[in-house]
Fold this protein.
Amino acid sequence: MSVVLTPVVLKTDASSDALAQHLDLSLVNDWSDDPNQVHVFYHDQRLVIGLPPVNREHPVAVDFELALRKRHPGKELLLKAIGGSRHRASVVDATAGLGRDSFLLASHGCTVTLCERMPVVAALLADGLRRAEKSSDCAEIASRMQLHHGSGAEYLASLSEQDCPDVVYLDPMFPVSGKSALVKKEMRLFHSLVGLDQDSDALLEIALQRARHRVVVKRPPKAPYLAERKPQLSVTGKAVRFDIYPLKAFPKGY
Ligand SMILES: C[S@@+](CC[C@H](N)C(=O)[O-])C[C@H]1O[C@@H](n2cnc3c(N)ncnc32)[C@H](O)[C@@H]1O
């Protein structure tokens, strides 16, 4: 079972007090003695999460400019799984996390609503989007991304028929595995903040009711199907699998 520690806000900036209030977290002036305590703080004008320096780990931020330059693992598979012409598809990413998959989809033309229910993660996303909107490289992509701070299931349930998206994308938390040391470190930090998503089976059910064309679920290659529901199709790479639940074909030329 993963242990989720309540994060604290580390005072590094004039805005730290307001941040602690906004997130309803304790404000501290110094690092905790607990090496596993997650701290939220401003660093180089970015909002980041990090462990005490004794861990020698880089703090994690949402950095879409970096994402533009870096290879996105599973990129081709994700684009294939989303299907249709990505130039028009509307996507609800109901488990946005650090927004990497959403950003990839938006950078290929999708309009993406990012739902994130964890306040600290939503704050990291909001900070990343704010910087992306000011960046000459990312502003156009960011204009297709909209953040919804709250439950993906509630957001989907609230949509009118005509606002339902073409695709609902799900990537709920799964126990850490993987070989890359860096991914492991980042994922460990993220896991200690978010824990496991225990309600993702129900999220799949609502996604299947609200998507117009398909639901796509990201899983580790050998993980069981979400809600034990066998997809019509899966595309699998070395580190990731996308389960595809088609509902209605995309119109020709779409
Ligand atoms: C594995 S991460 C997603 C990573 C993301 N695909 C990316 O590219 O960065 C899962 C995230 O979904 C969020 N989440 C899980 N269930 C959710 C729900 N029902 N509504 C909103 N957010 C949810 C968790 O808080 C976590 O931040």
